[in-house]
Design a protein that fits this description.
The chain has nine helices and nine strands. The strands form two sheets. A seven-stranded parallel β-sheet has the order 3-2-1-4-5-6-9, with helices on both faces. With 273 residues, it is an alpha/beta fold. The protein starts with a helix and ends in a 27-residue tail after the last strand. The relative contact order is 0.12. It binds NADP nicotinamide-adenine-dinucleotide phosphate (NAP). The site of NADP nicotinamide-adenine-dinucleotide phosphate (NAP) has 29 residues, from α2, α5 and α7. GO terms for molecular function: oxidoreductase activity, acting on the CH-OH group of donors, NAD or NADP as acceptor. Keywords: Oxidoreductase. InterPro entries: NAD(P)-bd_dom_sf, Sc_DH/Rdtase_CS, SDR_fam. Belongs to the short-chain dehydrogenases/reductases (SDR) family.
């Protein structure tokens, strides 16, 4: 970005987004860049650079190649963010990985890898950014999952990591609320991203349709739907310690698609009771 273009956006607040090279983090970055200067953080340098290119003209974004499990490289990136932008107002911790398996079939290696990215990554991101959020009375938003509030079959490590993120961020809401720092969690159901595409590509035929049938709104979320919730939480003045479900209603209660055959509703023998 040219010096003049950077100057044009110099009065905007600053947001740091992890996992910003793909899916939800990408959509969050491209949404927030309309009002914020953005630090686009991803372990994939080319993907982060592509998001910066896509944000060109709309606002000021810079790419940082960082693995969120490595505290020193995160710390170094935050130092550079402060040098470039001078402040930090909002953090969206979107970096995460999927992993399958029950407690019997999850290897210890997969367990450690999943918790390292999904939980320790959020912890470290918070640890290196909270001091700067305190200075601006800013906000921290983490992307957990509906698997952070309900059990999910065959996803032992993932479910444990996401439940833990809710606990971590709720604790932050208490620890830093007095400093004016708000901390919240977003809990999406399936979202149309490379992560979800990968899960369905590896799953038996019919899996995608099965999960879509469980959603009252009848579709998976778009990454932009989640980005709109993140924006809401960033802009909110009083929301703190909240876990925001964005899942089309799938965790609202037991649900069956009214279009699907169900004996009680169609006058079958059980319907007479
Ligand atoms: P995605 O498209 O795979 O994007 C995740 C991004 O995070 C990728 O660019 C990935 O890089 C990056 N990343 C992974 N590990 C990292 C690390 N150690 N350091 C830095 N960056 C790292 O996935 P998504 O669907 O957007 O998922 C974003 C978040 O939403 C995750 O926390 C996920 O658990 C959560 N979520 C997703 C869904 C869904 O259905 N998609 C539902 C509920 C919650 P690589 O490509 O190199 O791995």
């Amino acid at each position: 970005m040219s010096a003049t273009a950077a100057e044009n956006f110099a009065d905007r607040p600053v947001a740091l987004v992890t996992g910003a090279g793909s899916g939800i983090g990408r959509a969050v970055s491209l949404d927030l860049v309309r009002t914020h200067r953005i630090a686009v953080v991803d372990r994939d340098a080319a993907a982060a650079a592509a998001v910066v290119a896509a944000a060109g003209g709309v606002g000021h974004a810079e790419a940082y190649a960082v693995d969120v499990t490595e505290e020193e490289s995160l710390q170094d990136a935050v130092r550079r963010v402060l040098q470039t932008f001078g402040r930090l107002d909002a953090v969206a911790a979107c970096a995460g990985i999927a992993s399958g398996g029950t407690v019997e079939t999850t290897t210890l290696g997969d367990w450690h890898r999943t918790l390292a990215v999904n939980l320790t990554g959020v912890f470290l991101t918070a640890r290196v950014t909270v001091p700067h959020l305190r200075a601006t009375r800013g906000s921290f938003t983490a992307i957990a999952s509906d698997a952070g509030t309900t059990g999910a079959m065959d996803m032992a490590a993932y479910t444990a990591s996401k439940h833990a993120v809710l606990g971590l961020v709720r604790g932050m809401a208490l620890d830093f609320g007095r400093d004016g720092v708000r901390s919240n969690v977003v809990c999406p159901g399936f979202v149309e991203t490379p992560m979800a595409r990968g899960i369905f590509a590896d799953a038996p035929e019919g899996t995608e349709e099965f999960y879509r049938e469980l959603i009252p709104l009848g579709r998976f979320a778009e990454a932009e739907d989640v980005a709109a919730v993140v924006r809401h939480l960033v802009e909110s003045r009083y929301t703190n310690g909240h876990a925001y479900a964005i899942d089309g209603g799938s965790t609202a209660g037991y649900y069956r698609n009214p279009a699907a055959p169900f004996v009680a509703a169609t006058g079958g023998s059980h319907g007479e009771h």
